[in-house]
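Slide 14.
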Amino acid sequence: AQSRAAPARSAGRWPWPRSTVAELIRRIHQGGASVIALDMIFSEPTRGDSTEDDALAAAIREAGNVVPGFFLRIAEDATKPSVLPSPIESAIQPQAGFPGIRRYGGIETQLPAITEAAPQGGHFVAREDSDGTIRHYPLLLSYDDALYPALALRAVQRQLGNLPISVTPVQGVVPQLMLGEQKIPIDESGELWINW
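Slide 15: predicted structure.
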């Protein structure tokens, strides 16, 4: 039997053609994966061959279980992307927002066709402490007055059958994060502390 990893081995050095990534998504989906999280961004069209982008968007749409990533930047965008990923489904914020949650002015998203094929993406922003260790993981970040979940949170949401993600204030300005009926332990910054 041919190995399912064969396309990855034969693809050569990164970046791979998007049709190769599309084929990998198809094979992973056919292999029974319940969710496929992409912590890579395809934000610019393939030079000279739009069929590559079309193939990737089609594979993502057909799989129906892909969670694409996006990146948030501090610097403000000169223009917003034409298609944004979906923010948190239900977010009740204090009038001035949650002061502890980091706000970002820029966003780098997938190509519009990819975001349209799988709108429930998640950010993959992480910040290291001064010693280079990541001790907390931001499950919530703010962009354009909306709250966006981390890629890992969106992947778990998808794995559990698309339970709703909700955020409400407690004690006035502290976010409470829920995935369905499960409370997710975050601090006032919307971060999950990692217990090493």
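Speaker note: Residues 36 and 46 are 22 Å apart (CA to CA).
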